Amino acid sequence: MNANVTPFACGDAVCAQNRIETFIRSTVFDRPTLVLDRDMVAQQYRALKAGLGRADIHYAVKANPARDVLEVLVSEGSHFDAASRGEIALCLSLGAHPDCISFGNTVKRASDIAFAHQAGITLFAVDAEEELEKIAEHATGAQVYIRLLVGATGADWPLSRKFGCTPEMAEGLMARALELGLTPVGLSFHVGSQTRQAEMWRDTLDQVAAVWTQARAKGYPLSLINIGGGFPAFYGEAIEPATIYAARVMEMVEARFDGAERVMAEPGRGMVAEAGMIAAEVMLVSKKSEDDLHRWVYLDIGKFSGLAETMDEAIRYQFATERDHEDHGPCILAGPSCDSADVLYENRPVMLPVGLRAGDKVIIRSCGAYTSSYSSVGFNGFPPLDVVVI
Amino acid sequence: MNANVTPFACGDAVCAQNRIETFIRSTVFDRPTLVLDRDMVAQQYRALKAGLGRADIHYAVKANPARDVLEVLVSEGSHFDAASRGEIALCLSLGAHPDCISFGNTVKRASDIAFAHQAGITLFAVDAEEELEKIAEHATGAQVYIRLLVGATGADWPLSRKFGCTPEMAEGLMARALELGLTPVGLSFHVGSQTRQAEMWRDTLDQVAAVWTQARAKGYPLSLINIGGGFPAFYGEAIEPATIYAARVMEMVEARFDGAERVMAEPGRGMVAEAGMIAAEVMLVSKKSEDDLHRWVYLDIGKFSGLAETMDEAIRYQFATERDHEDHGPCILAGPSCDSADVLYENRPVMLPVGLRAGDKVIIRSCGAYTSSYSSVGFNGFPPLDVVVI
């Protein structure tokens, strides 16, 4: 193991991270492979739960639907947030109880709502009248929570306007839900993925609490607040330890949501990102011209084979190599496909060892979330990202 | 069939396009499905070949690696441009001769070069010294063509700086190839995907011809010019008919590349895009607030399930519905996943019927290229894009 590799800054995780790195360094891979550590998933569940206290953790399955990850979380007592019929079926097949699964996508196929209802799922997300009508028809009497569209926060992967309705519309949807025989039990929102500091939640919580308080004052019997995801992973910039972060968020929640008998949280990235690293390989190092300031480094993994979150250079992964003791220089990093859009970092180049060459192994850290499931089925004839669990 | 659906503007293709539309309108799909027409692939091959004349067409397999597409092209006599070992193996398994396959990715794994060499492939793309060294080691005596980095053109999907070396470096690579026992046979370049008018090739051809002429004057025995792809498909903006477009490009090529015994062209999009349409479905229509100017329309297919080329709204697909006789209004179009980046068109909204609602079928035209192979393995629990061939 290379002594110059910077250990992870997040305390308890250092030893476990090194377990994955040690495995990758001592193993030969014939294609890009995500290595996941089951123990780290369990540890992170416990760390988040310790801070979230009475809140139910509904793991966002979309972050990493690997069977091993879900099995660990079922055994830890986690609940689940499912985005589709496929995810619901997967959770049920691994022993999750239907009472512990929420159908959290606000955009659902009618037949999938019916499937969920028949499977015993009773809690659905909604942000539009047409969705309420579909739920009323296919999941009679279900509980719904209204997803709110909240103002921008400081998240590294801020959310678009895609999900949620404005606070002004929320009460109208509650009234319509009642007319349709549904039970509007609460509100949900999302602060934005990778919200690095708990303090960044404050403004959003204030906005949501105002809607909550007003709706309850008007007689809507809200009892559930779903605080969504946003729990961060370590990508090189300091984050608060998971338990402290979660506890601070919960403290702000408890101070604002009177009558919230039930609190839900939906960590995805914050649960599994640090539990995985990708074993990759350098395919080529080149310069475009003799006087080029930057080298181009091409890896065997790119935007279409697992690293989709490099879109707009939003998520900046960390890299380790066997040459980390050498001098470093700026590189433009690209994937292996013939697609010109398959460039990972160009606006902000990455510092990599000057001696890097084709065939060198590269470890990409904190890759446990939003990688394997984003991988394309076979773009350019490359197989999907492989997954190994240790 | 709805009489108000605008027929395709590209002449002969209208009837065949209608064959796919008719099939989609009369079929029930339980998930998003790409419907491909074998006959249209054959027709387009013949149309391009009629214009390209003596040039060898190396179909860019990455555009659509469906077995049916490759089988049709093998039987038509097409050659193939492969991006990976996987694509080479696929072409060989369907009867393509190794002499007709070029390994066109400038970024190749060493073991894949060895595989190609053993399979009898003799022609490789290169744009860097380290790549030449890999080829010399694993494919002794191979022919190589040097990919040039050319200036920006007017393409709808312009290429980044990812591929190619500057003209100044090209001769150095030819000299290095000779030192390594390789044969530098020619040059390649790419005008940019979806270059709508043949005339847009002129400047690029001038740039490349200058390198060609100078290298030959210095004694490099160049005999192959690979003009790459860029051949357009119809996405709503006028394009020249394929034969006329190809003939105009070839005319410009013939006027510039003295001694080019061999000309290669690599259409991908231009070969298969119009031969496929996607059958999709509306999942939800909503407004974010009472006074929202735009409706949000959510489809069952998005950026991560086949429509990756909507990235930055670059490729603008055309849509047909059963309500095309109704008034239309602006919509923001989004995919079904819980990913906030899964929005297809927002900056330039799409005009869709005002009565559109959940459950309505939507036909997305010219989807035969760069869709199915981009689809994720199962992001959010949604299965990959299905493919049906008629």
Automatic annotation (TrEMBL), chains A, B:
Gene Ontology MF terms: ornithine decarboxylase activity
ANK repeats: 52-85
InterPro entries on file: Ala_racemase/Decarboxylase_C (IPR009006), Ankyrin_rpt (IPR002110), De-COase2_N (IPR022644), De-COase2_pyr-phos_BS (IPR022653), Orn/DAP/Arg_de-COase (IPR000183), Orn_de-COase (IPR002433), PLP-binding_barrel (IPR029066)
Known cofactor(s): pyridoxal 5'-phosphate
Annotated pathway: Amine and polyamine biosynthesis; putrescine biosynthesis via L-ornithine pathway; putrescine from L-ornithine: step 1/1
Catalytic residues (UniProt): 338 (proton donor)
Keywords per UniProt: ANK repeat, Lyase, Pyridoxal phosphate
Domain Orn/DAP/Arg decarboxylase 2 N-terminal: 40-273
CDD domains the UniProt entry points to: PLPDE_III_ODC
Domain of life of the source: Bacteria
GO annotations of cellular component type: cytoplasm
PTM annotation (N6-(pyridoxal phosphate)lysine): residues: 62
Enzyme Commission identifier(s): 4.1.1.17
Pfam families assigned to the protein according to its UniProt record, in alphabetical order: Orn_Arg_deC_N
Keyword Lyase included in the entry's annotation: yes
Gene Ontology biological process: putrescine biosynthetic process from arginine, via ornithine
Catalysed reactions listed for this entry: L-ornithine + H(+) = putrescine + CO2
PANTHER family in the record: ARGININE/DIAMINOPIMELATE/ORNITHINE DECARBOXYLASE, ORNITHINE DECARBOXYLASE 1-RELATED
Family: Belongs to the Orn/Lys/Arg decarboxylase class-II family.
Protein name: ornithine decarboxylase
